[in-house]
Amino acid sequence: MFHDRADAGARLAARLRHLRGADPVVLALPRGGVPVAAAIAEALDAPLDLLLVRKIGAPGMPELAAGALVDGTPPSIVLNEEILRRLRITDAYLEAETARQRAELERRRAAYLRGRAPVPLTGRTVVVVDDGVATGATMRAALRGLAEAGAARRIVLAVPVAPPEVAEALRRLCDEAVILETPPDFQAVGLHYGRFDQTGDEEVTTLLDRAAARIAGGR
Fold first, then answer.
1. Structural fold of domain 5-52+119-216
2. Which DSSP state fits 114?
């Protein structure tokens, strides 16, 4: 049981100390991953940035993922080839929906980061953080997108809790994975926290601003 997201981040940071000299960048999946990642970034004296993932929904079924758009320069597109074939999704639909999600991704990045440019990932160790994983769909897209972009030298996954089978699948998509708890009776991420309030936009921007000031000030 983790007290809150900051506690989960501190416990993960203790397992990631070996990365302190590896020029790491910490990427958080918003919004819940940001408080966890902020604690890790501070402990590693690393920059903190976001890794935004937008689902590309199938025609008429927006909850069914035909793919995902993963933040980056440029963003990466991860496609679900089985869904594309089964539903005969056209290139025109895919291009239009991708453009729509790209605009939303850019809007959210601008709102959260107040116009700051993304932290460069080329040749660096990238630590991808969330407050927990349930189905793993978003995290799989995030890790695949980062790998396909090819900028990072090394990709490390850091999450407090995940189901055993999901954790095993995610380990295969990164160079290193630190997953503190893999309970066989997993039901929901929030059940593993004493406090699991919704992370608001204001908290996200405050933590990102604080991390940016720390790096700018050399602290």
1. Rossmann fold (3.40.50)
2. T
